């Protein structure tokens, strides 16, 4: 179950900032090692800030939060291109709010080689806040092979979102708010208390070679959640978690997801949509060349019944997706209910149209491999299935499909057979 978080709420809790005491930085003794840390430039940058210079102990016991914030504050006040180094070691930190705008900085490269451990004291976090948060920054690159460890096991028992519509949201591991021209590469996130990575109001975001891991039964640990963002591209990443590997929330456009290996988890989902008033539309989504392994869903589109306002999700393509022992390979659910029971007052008001499922193949754990349940208030339009080949994992019998409030269009191979 992924949760679409109201944008105003996210902005409110992201407005709280933590400040550290700036200290002097040094560039002595960098030499060739420094040059090797600049994958985006052929020339050395003029400003280099090492968190250890600012007092970080990297012993896994000392709270290094102030050292990290001091390094960031000094870097944000610099001019031109800036490098922040987090050397190997274990750092106990958080929450961390890395805020811009850094008015005279053209690019900030964070070379994260260390292992960051989140504080487990939930009183230090705001409702819906991030543990490590980057906001209002132009030209950030986060790379280096380091790890964000949310230490979520101690927080998961306090998650009540499976039963409480208005539950308190636990902290996301890494949150990006109102960012532009961001690159995230070669980063690992483990055991987040809530979402692992969240994008809100971001533009021109590229993520690759990301590893995300949490137990299959960890609650609401979505791998990547995208909301009100555009120009987003994620590729070549491994995601295994307790919820959606990737969830595409409301207000997104021009989002491309490629070469993702997902499992365990709930698959790649659009939604849930239609929970709040004045949600933005979703358009121009492409998901291709992905593999689902042992997930509860493959490709899923989910919208709430009884939507308080109208919105749309259109022009979406899911292509060349391999399913291995997936319970629900293709599913549209416009009566989405993550709780034990729901009493909808009316149909979903989210219009689904121009959706393409192409070259979907593999094995299903469920006898119903394709389930298209659209809204009786606004039936789905222009739903295409092309070259779908899904077999029952046990091989005992042929899978089936179900349809409601939709007349899908079929091209090429169709296993299971089209809905009657």
UniProtKB/TrEMBL annotation:
Organism domain of life: Eukaryota
Catalytic residues as annotated in Swiss-Prot or TrEMBL: 266
UniProt similarity note: Belongs to the glycosyl hydrolase 28 family.
Signal sequence bounds: 1-23
Keyword S-adenosyl-L-methionine set for record: no
Record has Signal as a keyword: yes
Chief subcellular location: secreted
Source species of the chain: Gossypium hirsutum
PANTHER family: PTHR31375
Subcellular location: Secreted, Cell wall
Listed InterPro entries: Glyco_hydro_28, PbH1, Pectin_lyas_fold, Pectin_lyase_fold/virulence
Protein name per Swiss-Prot or TrEMBL: Exopolygalacturonase
PROSITE patterns the UniProt entry points to: POLYGALACTURONASE (PS00502)
Keyword tags: Cell wall, Cell wall biogenesis/degradation, Glycosidase, Hydrolase, Secreted, Signal
């Amino acid at each position: 179950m992924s949760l679409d978080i109201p944008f105003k709420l996210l902005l409110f809790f992201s407005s709280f900032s933590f400040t550290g005491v700036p200290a002097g930085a040094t560039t002595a003794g960098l030499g060739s090692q420094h040059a090797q840390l600049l994958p985006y430039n052929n020339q050395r940058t003029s400003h280099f800030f090492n968190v250890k210079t600012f007092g970080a102990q990297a012993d896994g016991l000392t709270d290094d939060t102030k050292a990290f914030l001091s390094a960031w504050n000094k870097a944000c006040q610099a001019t031109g291109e800036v490098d922040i180094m987090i050397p190997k070691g274990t750092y106990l930190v958080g929450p961390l709010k890395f805020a811009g705008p850094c008015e005279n900085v053209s690019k900030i490269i964070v070379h994260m080689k260390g292992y960051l451990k989140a504080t487990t004291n939930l009183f230090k976090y705001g409702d819906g806040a991030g543990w490590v948060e980057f906001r209002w920054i132009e030209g950030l690159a986060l790379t280096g092979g380091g790890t964000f460890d949310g230490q979520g096991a101690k927080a998961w028992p306090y998650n009540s979102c499976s039963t409480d519509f208005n539950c308190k949201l636990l902290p996301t591991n890494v949150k990006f708010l109102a960012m532009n021209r961001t690159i995230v590469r070669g980063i690992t996130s483990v055991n987040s208390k809530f979402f692992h990575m969240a994008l809100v109001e971001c533009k021109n975001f590229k993520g690759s070679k990301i590893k995300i891991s949490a137990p299959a039964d960890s609650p609401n640990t979505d791998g990547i959640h995208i909301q009100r963002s555009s120009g987003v591209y994620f590729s070549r990443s491994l995601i295994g978690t307790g919820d959606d590997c990737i969830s595409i929330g409301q207000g997104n456009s021009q989002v491309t997801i490629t070469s993702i290996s997902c499992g365990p988890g709930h698959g790649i989902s659009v939604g849930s949509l239609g929970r709040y008033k004045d949600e933005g539309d979703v358009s121009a989504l492409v998901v291709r060349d992905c593999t689902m392994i042992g997930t509860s869903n493959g490709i899923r589109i989910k919208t709430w019944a009884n939507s308080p306002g109208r919105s749309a999700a259109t022009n979406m393509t899911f292509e060349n997706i391999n399913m291995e022992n997936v319970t629900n390979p293709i599913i549209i659910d416009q009566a989405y209910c993550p709780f034990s029971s729901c009493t909808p007052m009316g149909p979903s008001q989210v219009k689904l149209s121009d959706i393409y499922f192409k070259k979907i193949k593999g094995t299903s754990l469920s006898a119903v491999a394709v389930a298209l349940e659209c809204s009786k208030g606004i039936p789905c339009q222009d739903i295409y299935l092309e070259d779908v080949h899904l077999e029952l994992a046990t091989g005992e019998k042929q899978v089936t499909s179900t349809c409601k409030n939709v007349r899908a269009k079929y091209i090429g191979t169709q296993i299971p057979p089209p809905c009657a």
